[in-house]
Write a structure and sequence with these properties.
This protein is α/β, with parallel strands linked by helices and 227 residues long. It folds into two domains: 151 residues, 3-Layer(aba) Sandwich (Alpha/beta knot); 58 residues, tRNA(m1g37)methyltransferase, domain 2 (Trp Operon Repressor, Chain A, Orthogonal Bundle), CATH 1.10.1270. It is 35% helix and 18% strand. It contains eight helices and nine strands. Strand 8 and strand 9 form a beta hairpin. The longest helix has 19 residues. The structure holds adenine. The site of adenine has 12 residues, from strand 5.
Length: 227
């Protein structure tokens, strides 16, 4: 898989992909993440990437031209399955969308800024608009990093123990059950006896019960669908 990120702040991506599963996935060539500075595609001498909105009312709007230039350049090099725009008024991101996107070959992620991009970018160049939640970030970069992290970690082979991605919260429509490790008794804080019993069937049953109870209490919306 190849992911091309288009941003006015390339440095923001220095950290998020350099650790843990995402770093390993890049090293083992499961994914290639390429970052493009939108300013490099500006046409005027000031490297402008935004301008005042025709509608007035404050804020700046990102220009069509540099965005079209970078996207056309990338499209001339390979085919893209999706051109994603991160924006608070997009479709809400969730595990199902992460699963779908993780199976794609090539995607572009455009990070929004200011008041957003000229609507014509959205009408003619973007195939999917994604929000990571009902709150507003300073820009689309952190949203892009969140989306990319969640889909790269589930590319087959990214996690050594395949079953561990399948037992994530949300993959089976439930929140994950609690987990424990040694010691079995820490200053009187005890691990539930059942987990020490060695009875796999009972343990699986306990985990499902715990997951259902947690989901019922914390996420009644999810629990309704699960029932
Ligand atoms: N840009 C600003 N806020 C955002 C959000 N909640 N989701 C995606 N992109 C954003």
């Amino acid at each position: 898989m190849r992911i091309d990120i288009v941003t006015i702040f390339p440095e923001m991506f220095k950290g998020p992909f350099d650790y843990s599963i995402i770093q390993r996935a890049q090293k083992s060539k499961l994914v290639e993440i390429c970052i493009h500075n939108l300013r490099d595609y500006a046409t005027d001498k000031h490297k402008r990437v935004d301008d005042y909105p025709f509608s007035g009312g404050g804020g700046m709007v990102m220009l069509v031209e540099p965005i079209e230039r970078v996207i056309q350049q990338l499209k001339s090099e390979r085919n893209y399955d999706e051109v994603i725009y991160t924006t608070p008024d997009g479709e809400m991101f969730n595990q199902a969308t992460a699963n779908v996107l993780s199976s794609k070959q090539n995607i572009i992620v455009l990070c929004g800024h200011y008041k957003g991009v000229d609507q014509r970018v959205r009408d003619h160049l973007i195939t999917r608009e994604i929000s990571i939640g009902d709150f507003v970030l300073s820009g689309g970069e952190l949203a892009a990093a969140v989306i990319i992290d969640s889909l790269v970690r589930i590319i087959p082979g990214a996690i050594s123990d395949e079953t561990s991605a399948l037992t994530d919260s949300f993959q089976d429509g439930l929140l994950a059950p609690p987990v424990y490790t040694r010691p079995a008794d820490y200053k009187g804080w005890k691990v539930p006896d059942i987990l020490l019993s060695g009875n796999d069937k009972d343990i699986e049953h306990w985990k499902l019960e715990q997951a259902m109870e947690k989901t019922r209490i914390r996420r009644p919306d999810m629990f309704e669908k699960f029932k």
